[in-house]
């Protein structure tokens, strides 16, 4: 009763001019929130309590902490409220009163208080940059760290640093899957920088060779807005920006990594507390504590934030602003139920906006590093979690989130991991270094993403999406065949963790540096409908039961990557503006359940036929959907649109993103692109074949040079490239030496092979010698020793007599198309001359020569001689085929009933001489096969599409 009377009907007031000895009334307010909390604790749970905080900045000496003792109850909540929304600022920093003097070169200096550590510096509310190299350039929004340099911490650069200890190295992941951070520990006597760190990414593959930056190095203080704090001598150095007067400026530094800490547990939660209307600022960077891997996702996480909630129930974060934070803004850790973030503005934070992350001990058979694998015969087959220590039924709604990842490069506007039934709705998210929304695993599904507006994402990274997910759950292995066998035996396996369907609907997405919606490795049990995708399209990779319908992909389409057999995936009633862009999908045994009844707004009517042999798009159509007003972002279709024929139905185009008026008035919206109907993207039936249609083979395996987004499917970088064995039958020589379908060859004997020409050239140069082949298999590096039984012959000389020209042959040569210059009979006359030979015209891709051996015979070797006419036409780029038919088999070498691929040759990257001999030969006692017909299918060898000047063709019979 006394407490109630003293506090004026359960209202407690706080003001900057108050005193903690006061009664806490409006006329006699308290000074600190911690004192108000202690007073409120006396009534909490007994009656409603409201703590009203007056406008002002409250610099906290320690985090404002709430425990179960501070809890309210459903009918007696505890509310902490800023008297005016945005008026009360809770700061984890301090304001410095400094006396500036001139140092040198435009740099000022000032003494700082004893014992202070400065993690970040703000001048008049604007973050300033630690002294760094290279300098920060705010205009480089998509450049790593807004400025990077290969020599960031090179020995030559470090030679100018007296003592870099305490500096930091920031470097992008080798494949730009986020970033790494290192603390510099000093220099070796030889001058190299020493450092520790690099644990901030769960795919530890090393730092990028160019995308690097260093900071907190005194000698790099050379640009306006940069600063350096000499903590030992307590001196702050600062170079003001033009027009700035530090003496008249508000200078604030960051001290605390956490501003508010709600600290409960599964057994004893904190509940029924609302925080409303505050601004939370100045939390320290935590990138060196971002070290916990998350369930084989690409993430590592720091379980902390400016506002950390552990063990919360019915906690409401309403109408708050989070700004100038070095790490995560809001973090819901382990057990949380019915927590809500509503009407908040979260911006310019070092890591993620809102995180929901559960306890790994709640997961059955958890694995952490990407390469780890479960024994699928021994895993726990019990569905769902094994404890309740995780977030569930949480909500992020009506929020504006932007400026995500100002320090770290593996963040998200909203991050969800080891959680269930999290809803993100009516929220605008943009300006993100990586994902807008990320779901890191399938545990335990049931999430709802709706009416969101997510764009300008993946700005500094690679291979990701505005929405991104992984599902590397207990069923998933990187060696997919093992997972496939286990799921074939138990189709419920993918849903042990992804037990409830996750829904993505009625949202707008745009990613200019990846996919709009990217369901990556293992992501399963999704419904995706009524989404407007403005640039990157939809990607589904190796999961089960994904259903996508009634979506629109502007200027893009559907990207099926690496599917399982019987995946039960369905993609129907969508409007696509490009043909499907498959990467290892579809395949004979990976066709999905239903990919059909879609509308393609493209210029090539044959687009729908691209995957017809897999049963895809049998009832799809090519037509103009007749969008109502696409230039203004209204992609509804007009009455009578042909989209109706495939079942498409309009959905609202004015409900995307934040609704709160004060936030909507400042929120950006994505740029609406002009319509560019696609040409079908690699649709069949071109007017003439392109060089990209060429088939190449080695040891019976079909080769494929990666392009476009296929690098993502193989988990490698475009810079590294590679040659994929897209078909390596068990009967092939490739399989016999230990190679497999979908192996990606990246080097031979230590020489990089980014493309087919480099690979075949490296094999040719090795001759009959053994090969050490470096491959990526299931996204892991493997080495295979190969002793080829079929070798590529390659010799060059300026003296034709040194090339062992064959004698005249009576075998006749025919050509698929007309040749120029010499007659075809010159190819078997035993004469290698300084001439064009019977050459195909420039631009002729896929010309072919054929020899009739008269009967089926064992073929020991096949070779060709050429002349380097005008220094350009000596290289050979071809694939050899054989046929056993008694009649002329024609020229369709892709017909496997008529032709057998033998091998390929590509010498375009090898040294040139006047004359060249290339070919393939079988080892002792063996043959290349028995054939009656041999075909050389040849391709241009110069950028201007000039064909080889062939002089002689020869087939050696026998074993």
**Largest β sheet strand count, sense and barrel closure:** 25 strands, parallel
Uncertain residue ranges: 1-9, 681-692
Class per helix and strand makeup: mainly beta
Strand content: 35-45%
Rounded mean pLDDT is 94
Amino- and carboxy-terminal Cα gap = 107 Å
Which word captures the global form? elongated
Instruction: Tell how many strands the DSSP assignment holds.
Output: 73
Oligomer: single chain
What's the total helix number?
8
What does it look like?
This protein has a 25-stranded parallel β-sheet that branches. A 14-stranded parallel β-sheet has the order 3-6-22-26-29-33-36-39-42-45-48-51-53-54, with no helix packed on it. The protein starts with a helix and ends with a strand. Strand 62 (771-777) and strand 63 (780-786) form a beta hairpin. The chain is elongated, with a radius of gyration of 33 Å. With 959 residues, the protein is mainly beta. The chain has eight helices and 73 strands.
Concise overview:
The protein is built from eight helices and 73 strands. The chain is mainly β. The chain is elongated and about 115 Å long.
Throw out a few tags for this protein.
14-stranded parallel sheet, disordered N terminus, mainly beta, about 35% strand, about 950 residues
